[in-house]
């Protein structure tokens, strides 16, 4: 059986990272321009890594499938980024952020990596402020913070509802400076389709120019994969429609271990599905749970009346509303972690209390009326009006909410044609983030030497559930403050290697395999579109590998996906040719990878006989319906090695998790 070496440094957890940095090898500044590094993906993780590595003097080749790095999906993150600055004086600390993250992930993450993340969180804010990121500030000019789910402190820095966009623009600006200096060569509209391994080391990639269709060889001394997560395996998700798993899946098939594929996050505050022709879902920021209260009617007949349009939310009096998260989890209320909030919404809707008029009656209210009244009174009082009228309170409260969340409210209204200042938002859980990904050691290197994986593409920091505002934190920590140090230790051996030639049998073979795969899709004489198969895969995944899972459904999913995969390769139709701009060909390759990964996700979920975080097995729950872990048998990372085209034959093994600084115990947010 394969054994993994996570290379976790010795010593106290508070000293591991600093001691490790002090003892790893360096590459002299004069030698760095002798080394090429490929970065695949230019979101927050890839963009920050490319900019920082180039600033250090390495020659960086950056690849993105979008027309600009500014279009990376990181731009869609709305709510904020966590950092243990304790600016609010509410007793926050590095240890508290570390503890909250491990607990929020239901004790299925690696302690050392999470503590490093908490440490570096503080540097991220300083870095981004110096870049000019316009974080929100309070009345006195200090950086403001707000709360997010799963914590009892205010540690989330934000820029209205555009935090991801502003942080990405900071990284993009840093990249542009290095592009201008000639340190970064940017390859827009290029998609990585394979990894090239030479003498056991990652030495380059095969990429397709998405505009011309040309297949290209690119070499380097090391490769960084920062291509995001695989949520679009479900077809409907909050991810950008182009988000895909191809880069990660291709390195898996070249020898990189995949870890915890079944750990998928369902976000509780998304606009509900409204029809069968919908192509993606829209996330409403978790920051809204700071101010909104989630409820459904207490009476089923009221819920039915709302669904049928006979009643509106305003017709349900306060005493007839079930604020179910506040009722079940008084200590955290509406700010419980995402997996807990999502299951709560599903339970209420499954019980018949859903308020959205769609096929499944899925939807709950996110109501801002209480906050509007509360803040209206505060603002009036601060202005010297100690006896405001109800109209004045409402007007001032709405203005406060607009200043805080205005762009989010505007987005909701444009999509739904409902005014959230007047009537509650309708929300329901949807696929959002994937905690699983390529296995990496403490240095963020995969099991392929020289192949590093950063951000959502790796598995390392979030366990079975990600706390809100931690994705941006991990992406920037990996790119700005981890990879630039750890990669030097590996690259120190390459200062005399010289340029990596692309005229080798390994590059020739990899290129030919890519061309063969493309030709098999283009020349297939099928009758059904790529989306036809993707939607069918999505239904299987959502219904049987989604928010709630059971052994029978997972066994069925494994069988159904295997059959669907065979049908796809037999009957998919891809129009056009390979040597031109062809979005359908792009999608076909990505869906082919999703079909294989989806089967592995179901296999992993079936093997993990417990409930943990976003992985909820119906057979393993407490009497109160909470996730029931099995620490004796499943306190480990589930690891999978590719073992040929038959996904059912993937090799399974474990990385045992050790908890020396946090006590393993049942999560409670009550």
TrEMBL record:
Entry GO terms, CC: plasma membrane
FAD-dependent oxidoreductase 2 FAD-binding domain residues: 36-472
Annotated active site: 338
Domain Fumarate reductase/succinate dehydrogenase flavoprotein-like C-terminal: 534-669
Enzymatic class: oxidoreductase
Keywords of the record: Cell membrane, Electron transport, FAD, Flavoprotein, Membrane, Oxidoreductase, Transport
Membrane listed as a keyword: yes
A GO term for molecular function: electron transfer activity
Catalytic activity: a quinone + succinate = fumarate + a quinol
Recorded superkingdom: Bacteria
Main location: membrane
E.C. designation(s): 1.3.5.1
Membrane protein topology class: Peripheral membrane protein
Single GO biological process annotation from the record: anaerobic respiration
Required cofactor names: FAD
Location in the cell: Cell membrane
Homology family: Belongs to the FAD-dependent oxidoreductase 2 family. FRD/SDH subfamily.
Family matches, as PANTHER family: SUCCINATE DEHYDROGENASE 2 FLAVOPROTEIN SUBUNIT (PTHR11632), SUCCINATE DEHYDROGENASE FLAVOPROTEIN SUBUNIT (PTHR11632:SF53)
Record-given protein name: succinate dehydrogenase
């Amino acid at each position: 059986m394969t054994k993994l070496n996570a290379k976790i440094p010795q010593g106290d957890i508070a000293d591991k990272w600093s001691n490790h940095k002090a003892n790893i090898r360096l590459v002299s500044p004069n030698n760095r321009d002798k080394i090429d590094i490929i970065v695949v993906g230019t979101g927050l993780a890839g963009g920050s890594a490319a900019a920082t590595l180039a600033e250090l003097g390495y020659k960086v080749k950056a690849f993105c499938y979008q027309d600009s790095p500014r279009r990376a999906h990181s731009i869609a993150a709305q709510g904020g980024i966590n950092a243990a600055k304790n600016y609010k004086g509410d007793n926050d600390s590095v240890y508290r952020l570390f503890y909250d993250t491990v607990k929020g992930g239901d004790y299925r993450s690696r302690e050392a990596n999470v503590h490093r993340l908490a440490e570096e969180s503080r540097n991220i804010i300083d870095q981004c402020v110096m870049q000019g990121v316009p974080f929100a500030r309070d009345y006195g000019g200090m950086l403001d913070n707000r709360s997010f789910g799963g914590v009892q402190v205010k540690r989330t820095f934000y820029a209205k509802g555009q935090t991801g966009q502003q942080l990405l623009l900071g990284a993009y600006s840093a990249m542009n400076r290095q592009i201008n200096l000639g340190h970064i060569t940017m390859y827009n509209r290029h998609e990585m389709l394979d990894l090239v391994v030479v003498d056991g080391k990652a030495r380059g990639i095969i990429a397709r120019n998405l505009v011309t269709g040309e297949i290209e060889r690119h070499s380097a001394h090391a490769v960084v994969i920062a291509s995001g997560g695989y949520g679009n395996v479900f077809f409907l998700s909050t991810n950008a429609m182009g988000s895909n798993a191809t880069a990660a899946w291709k390195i898996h098939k070249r020898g990189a271990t995949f870890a915890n594929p079944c750990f998928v996050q369902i976000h509780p505050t998304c606009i509900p599905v409204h029809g069968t022709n919908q192509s993606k879902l829209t996330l409403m920021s978790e920051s809204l749970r700071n101010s909104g209260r989630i409820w459904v009617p207490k009476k089923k007949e009221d819920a039915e009346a709302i669904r049928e349009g006979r009643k509106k939310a305003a017709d349900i009096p306060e005493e007839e509303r079930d604020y179910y998260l506040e009722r079940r989890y008084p200590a955290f209320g509406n700010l419980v972690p995402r997996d807990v909030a999502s299951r709560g919404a599903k339970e209420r809707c499954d019980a018949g209390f859903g308020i959205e008029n769609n096929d499944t009656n899925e939807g709950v209210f996110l109501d801002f009326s209480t906050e509007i009244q509360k803040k209206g009174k505060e603002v009036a009082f601060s202005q010297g009006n100690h006896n405001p009228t109800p109209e004045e309170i409402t007007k001032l409260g709405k203005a406060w909410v607009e200043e805080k969340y205005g762009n989010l409210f505007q987005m909701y209204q444009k999509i739904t044609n409902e005014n959230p200042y007047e009537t509650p938002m309708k929300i329901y859980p949807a696929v959002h983030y994937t905690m699983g990904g390529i296995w990496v050691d403490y240095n963020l290197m995969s099991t392929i030497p020289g192949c590093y994986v950063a951000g959502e593409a790796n598995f390392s920091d979030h366990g079975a559930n990600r706390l809100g505002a931690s994705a941006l934190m991990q992406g920037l920590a990996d790119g700005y403050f981890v990879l630039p140090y750890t990669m030097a230790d590996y690259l120190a051996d390459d200062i005399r290697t010289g340029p990596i030639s692309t005229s080798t049998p390994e590059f020739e073979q990899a290129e030919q395999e890519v061309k063969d795969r493309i030709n098999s899709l283009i020349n297939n004489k099928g009758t059904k579109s790529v989306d036809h198969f993707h939607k069918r895969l999505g239904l299987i995944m959502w219904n049987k590998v989604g928010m709630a899972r059971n052994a029978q459904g997972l066994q069925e999913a494994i069988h159904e996906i295997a059959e669907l995969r065979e049908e796809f390769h037999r009957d998919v139709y891809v129009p056009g040719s390979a040597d031109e701009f062809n979005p359908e060909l792009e999608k076909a390759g990505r869906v082919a990878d999703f079909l294989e990964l989806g089967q592995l996700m179901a296999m992993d979920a079936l093997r993990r006989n417990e409930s943990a975080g976003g992985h909820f097995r119906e057979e393993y729950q407490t009497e109160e319906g909470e996730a029931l872990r099995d620490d004796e048998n499943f306190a480990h990372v589930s690891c999978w090695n590719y073992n040929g085209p038959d996904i059912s034959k993937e090799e399974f093994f474990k990385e045992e998790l050790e908890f020396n600084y946090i006590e393993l115990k049942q999560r409670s947010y009550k």
